[in-house]
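Hey, I'm writing a tutorial for new members on how sequence and structure tokens pair up, and I'd like a real worked example in the thread rather than a made-up one. If someone can provide the structure for the chain below, I'll link this post from the tutorial.
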Amino acid sequence: MQFMTRLTLLSLLFMLTVSFCFAQDKKPDAPATPGTPGTAAPKETPKPGPKPFKEVITDKAISSKGLLNVHKVEDKWFFEIPDSIFKREIMTVTRYSKTAAGGGIFGGEEVNRQVIAWERGPDNKVFLRSITQIIVSPDSTKPIFKAVKNSSADPIVASFDIKSIRKDTSVVIEVTDFFKGDNQVFSLSPITKQLLKISDFKADRSYIQSIRTYPINTEIRTVKTFGSQSPTLSLTPTPQIGTFLPAGVDAGVVTMEFNTSMIILPKKPMRVRHFDPRVGYFSTGYGTFEEESQKADAEQIAVRWRLEPKNAADAQKQKRGELIEPAKPIVYYIDPATPLKWRKYLKQGVDDWQKAFEKAGWKNAIRGEYWPEQDTTMSLEDARFSVIRYFAADIQNAYGPNVHDPRSGEILESHIGWYHNVMRLVRNWYLIQTAASDPRARKKDFDDELMGQLVRFVSSHEVGHTLGLRHNMGASSATPVEKLRDKAWVAQNGHTSSIMDYARFNYVAQPEDGVTDFFPRIGDYDIWAIEWGYKYFVDAKSDEEEKKLLNDLTKEKVKNPRLAFGTEVSPNDPRYQTEDLSDNSMKASEYGVKNLKRILPNLPEWSKENGESYSELEELYNNVVGQFNRYLGHVTKNVGGIYDTPKTYDMAGAVFEAVPKDRQKEAMAFLSSHLFETPTWLMEGNILNKIRPDAGVDAIKKLQESTLNNLLSGSRIARLLETGKDGNYTLDEMMTDLRSSIWSELKSQKAIDIYRRNLQKVFVEKAITYLAPKDPATIQYVPAGGAYGSNILRVDLKTTDLPSITRGQLESLLSEIKAAIGAAPDKLTRYHLEDVANRLDSALHPK
């Protein structure tokens, strides 16, 4: 019994011991007695949240100070954001640094721009917000300010953990993955990816190349790789980027380099200058809600550079009429990739604007400079520098954009795009428009000096855009047509009052006139426009006071037609057209056609090069046809035209007026004699037999058909119906003049040749459609307020006089054709008349 009891006690003791051991095994992290041999040191759980600065930015860091302090620790990148930067608005501009070949995009071009702001968030976070400027309330002390804020929350596009807080004056975040990745704010938009046939992002082949920081900006250079989709069977060119056959099709990927500039916007925005439709500036705008206003307003402000005196003493000097230098001049650098021989001409195109700024009270306000290639602290993509970028591309174009502060319209920088092949464009223009009078243009390749002056002209035009100026398509209409033939007058004034017009070159001057100056130049309008945008009003206490001063000045200036602004796009006003000259399109085009007739027979000689095909000849011939077609368009716009002259309440006269009747009839007469009477001079046998197999019959028909469709467009008919009263030109008169011109053989009883037969059928088929018009017509116009856009009036043509007038005209035509059939001078003329009579009879009297 005692033995059994002892055994049971031993068993229980053993079991307790084993249980104690098992209990110890289940808690391996329990503290052990310090210093006990064989025991492990206790493990500490990492504390969440910011760490001491030296633990994050170690002694291995490569650091630089600037707008955002930048630290690189091994392969990680950190931003140190000062408290003073939080909630400050920052403009980000992302550009291509290097692109894939064949995509129609080039290093230096803009990818996107965005206003952002850093913001301290809860839970030790930093947020990146995208700032939108759609509606604003200018006074933050008013209750309505809160309502605006409640309706315009800015999206959070990224969130970052705070890694360290440095003496409560700045915070540190890691940005490695953010900038390595494919975030839309600093990368390609979905639409661009679709156009470029880009698919997925390749993170393992994308990286940060460098981040550099400066006092007002931080520059991030990245390399990004994307998957490249296979091209479709049919590649169609797009207006944005041309035809894209990705360079990475064979490799399956496309790699590009990007540069993002983050430049802080001024703490105090520049004083705005209110947009005025009487002077052509680009504008930016937003909706405004003010406490005392009885409606929601649309604020529209001009886009321009900030030019201010260095000090109060200089401001007073300028007020007394002295020229002063601005605190910060406008500087454009010439891309070092530009061929050496064209650099000076691009620079001259910038410097030419100095005389305009002098009129506004500034000296040395603008200049071109060559890029200092030895200065490694400067980058072409840096948003602090404005550059004329040179692109190795076959695109025949150049463009002049700007990046501006959306709050004030202040231009921050500009990268003018200059495509190499723009020289081909100006070569063709100059040869086709001036070779009749300028012997220098009578060759395939121009001399460097002539081409250099063409480069200079285009440079000045594009710089004008980056100063804020829009196209002024009405400038050339202020020049009387006969003055364009006056050598002394042209030398003094130029053939257009604005280089911002698409006036190109003086095609009106005849060889016997002796004119030698064919180029546009910075003219009277440009000088006035710069004065409007950049004159400094030292005594004006607010933008509203400036607006009143400018209004008084503008009212007087625009009384001079050479200082008036003709809008970029006007579907109604024949004074506002591209590629036209003078105050009379008909007379100017008459002179232009005379010169084309002189030029055309010489093209084989001027384009020849032994061993080469006739492609050069074909290109020049097509340019002659294109120039002739422009003349037809200039003339046609007078028919049913409406003059549109921007005015304010304190200016006399109407804003909208119909083009005078005699001017419209003059236009119809021009079309009759130069187009509807077959332009056989275009069918130069010595050219056509070298560039195409046909004799030009269908080409002439298409040229006539295009103008006829334009002349009989629904919008033009609607305008004639609206304005055809009180002695103005009517739709019935236009149709009578057109029918008499196109069917003149019915009275002369002459044979109708193949060209006229084609034209007459086109006229009849077009007119028949107006017996029962299906689609409504539109009349577009710029609103009286001068907003940058247009309004549209819709006219239901089937319930207007159009069907009635058309029926009356076609009934008369049918009677005349039937009467002429018996006297037809040849078989084909009779066949033609019988056929057309049958078509008209079926349309007018259907069974």
